[in-house]
Amino acid sequence: MKQLLLLAFMLVSLGTWAQEQKPEAPKWQGKFEQLDQTLPTPNEYRSGSGAPGPKYWQQQADYDMAIELNDLNQSISGKETITYINNSPDVLRYLWLQLDQNILDKESNTAKTQTSSIRDSTAAKSMAGQFNLYDYEGGYKVKAVTDVNGKPLSYTINKTMMRVDLPTPLKSGDKYSFKVEWSFNVNDRNLYGGRSGLEFFPEDGNYVYTIAQFFPRMCVYDDVVGWQNKQFLGRGEFTLPFGNYKVSITVPADHIIGATGSLKNAAQVLTKAEMDRFEKAKNTYDKPVIIVTQDEAIAREKTKSTQKKTWQFEATNVRDFAFASSRKFIWDAMAVKIGDKTPLAMSYYPKEGNPLWEKESTMAVKNTIEVYSKYTVDYPYPHATSVHAASIGMEYPMICFNFGRPKKDGTYDNATLQRMLGVVIHEVGHNFFPMIINNDERQTTWMDEGIDSFVQLMTELERYPQLDWSRGKPAGIVPYMKGDKSIMRPLMTNSEQVIAFGSEQYAKAATALYILRESVMGKELFDKSFKEYAQRWAFKHPKPADFFRTMEDASAVDLDWFWKGWFYTTDNVDISLDNVKWYKVRTEKTNLENKDMKVAKGDLAKEGDANQKPSDFSKGPEYFTVIPTDNRFYGEFANRIDDKAVMAKMENKNFYEITLTNKGGLVMPVIIEWTFKDGSKEIERLPAEIWRINETKVTKVFAKEKEVVSVVLDPQKETADITIEDNVFPKVAQPSKFDELKKKN
What we know:
Blueprint: H1 2-10, E1 60-70, E2 75-85, E3 92-98, H2 109-113, H3 124-130, E4 141-147, E5 155-158, E6 161-170, E7 175-185, H4 189-192, E8 197-201, E9 206-211, E10 217-218, E11 221-222, E12 226-227, E13 243-252, E14 256-259, E15 262-263, H5 266-269, H6 272-281, E16 289-292, H7 294-303, E17 308-318, E18 323-326, E19 330-335, E20 344-349, H8 356-375, E21 383-388, E22 393-396, E23 399-402, H9 414-429, H10 449-463, H11 474-481, H12 501-521, H13 523-537, H14 544-553, H15 560-568, E24 575-585, E25 622-624, H16 643-650, E26 654-662, E27 670-676, E28 681-686, E29 697-704, E30 708-713, E31 728-729, H17 735-744
Parallel strand pairs: 1-13, 20-21, 21-23, 24-25
Antiparallel strand pairs: 1-2, 2-7, 3-6, 3-10, 4-7, 5-6, 8-9, 9-18, 11-12, 13-17, 14-18, 15-17, 16-19, 19-20, 22-23, 24-26, 26-29, 27-28, 27-30, 30-31
Helix pairs in contact: 8-9, 8-10, 9-10, 10-12, 11-12, 12-13, 13-14
């Protein structure tokens, strides 16, 4: 019996105390097993460190396009020459192109696979759009696919994909040029939705065109999946190779265009006054310069020129091209200092966006590229542009389309301002993810939307701290995480199969990264690793494994448990503080071998009471005995510790044994707030690896100099714990703790 009591001190770190207990068998699910067998095997293209391998390659597609926008019948026609460079080690016998406009074709798989039901009192607009009662004819009309000499090429259209058969196989290192001629009717977004289209303004009879996904675009061919030619069903966005663009756009002469790339013939399409203001903006850093004024835009709305002008743009090393065109546009711009470059932050907006847009948009663009550059790579392009259009948030290289419209009288509330700032930051931020760090959006949405939403939150908190931002913060994801599991999908799910799209691919992913930074890795390690990932994969095509591996490689933090829990499961964080026991060391001498000994009140619990859970500390501490160390615990060591000195140091300490249960399945760090009798507090942080032996229940003992009056788990709500009521001890003595936490939530 004496030897058993001796273990009381020696096994304190395992939570085994004087009273005999039968430990609960660990429920092991492999949450801390490595992801090595799940992630792709590293190779010469993608290394085990997460960096591009020594033989990494990617394809290139260059475009030379001539586009015309017909404002009379709202259509677009175009001719393009594509030069495709095969940098892969493979021989290609055919090429795949994306035909995104075909999603609006009457025979598209999108319409056929959408589920629906009849409900009474259904809005006419919903029925008209669902059954195409507007008689709109969407989709591409592909007029010709030829080689550069005009000789027809064999091609096959499969819904939103087009295969072009090459006359001779394209060998590694070779390039091939061919031409495509096409047209389509521009969709009214008010009637058909969509990421691209037009908005009609009945009061003045004009249109704002926000045009994207408007030309047949090359699919990605890479080392992981070959051709990324998954059908476009509407949600999964785009996977595109980098290339160089030369684009001429013919529009009515009174239109103003914003587009990807640099305007090459400004003197031919702008007035002298506009040119002077444009040049001034390039050297103005404190506030936007109005290049096209509201009065000038209103005058254009009335004249409606029947003449045409052609605007010419060029862009280098971009993955896409988009533009916006209207006679209604007001245009402002300012310069931003980013490293050794001075890109322009610009905005285009109709008068319906003012005064909100003139005041806020371009400054938000500036704030975004400054903060994102700090966390990733210096913004490399000549401009970043925000275009105002109703009820949309969509991104393309250097240009994005954003909502946020004041009331007709020009007034707006704080909610409108916050939503507008949020969407501008988010969409401008997409210049970095995925326009520069060019992940596969169609397969892995969170790498695009989730990572962008995370850096968006960093920007919002840094530049607009006066507003209440919630998406990406742990408390903001709790309602979703405690919701219906049947509609949840792991983050590692193709976007077309996701149900709660915004809550998962945007908010959950952003929250995971926020928690990773704030509570798991720490800001310094996270920021260095995140920046390393951005720099490694700028202008390349990263996959999830490249992100996971880089974050670990650059930090020396094992994060496989984190990726497994947050990205591969639908588990949630629900850690309960089941019990806290208070102990002190017994100092009086006692006959330890007398089993019939009657212990005094406050000593070790009586037989049969050992498993009772105290509800507070009101009964005082329990006592345990520390005795001299038996020689057998030294093994072969000749030296001995000073037992009396150890006992003396323990005499006045308070020992607290806490028992935690992981109810939600998601292992996380344990954050403990101790409140002492003198009113002082202490935060103690335990790494998630505390769960590595038993993934469902842990017991741990803490030694404190001062007497504790309460214990709270996750006091600042850092981990997205879905149940805060079981995070507090005492359970009854301090109900105000519950009230305090509920108010914070």
